[in-house]
Amino acid sequence: MRYGKALITVIILAVISPVFGVILADAVGYHEPLDVAAETLGLKEKDIEWGSPLPDYTVPGLDPVTGYIVSGIIGAAVVFGIAYLLSKVSKKE
Question: How many Cβ atoms are within 10 Å of 22's Cβ, its own excluded?
C-alpha cells in the first residue's frame, strides 16, 4: 500500500476529531464564528440554506460523535478522490 501511513493518519485524526469538535467544544461553550455572526444579525439556522449534505458535520440518524467521524472520513475521501483525479489528468498531459 503506497499511501498506507497517510491513510492510517487520516483515520486516526477522524476518530479523535470529535474530542475537539464536539466534546471539548461543548465543555467550553465554543460556537462557530459564523453562528455567532448569524445570531448577532438575528438570523436563524432555518433562514440560511447552505445546501450541505452534512450540515454542522452531522449525519442524520447518528449521534453527534459518530456523525462527526463519518463526515470527516467522507470529507477526506472527497479530497483524496479529487487529488487522485487531478493526478491522473496531469499525467496524461
Answer: 19
- Integer angstrom CA distances of residue 60 from 7, 34, 55: 26, 22, 9
- Asked if residue 18 has pLDDT above 80, the reply is yes
pTM of the model: 0.72
Q: Is 55 helix (H, G, I), strand (E, B) or coil?
A: helix
Are 32 and 24 in contact, with CB atoms under 8 Å apart? Answer: no
Residue with the three cell numbers 479523535:
16
46 pLDDT higher than 80:
no
Alpha helices in the chain (DSSP H): 4-18, 24-28, 33-40, 64-92
The set of cell numbers assigned to 32 is 462557530
Cβ-proximal residues to 24 (8 Å cutoff; 6+ apart), any chain = 30
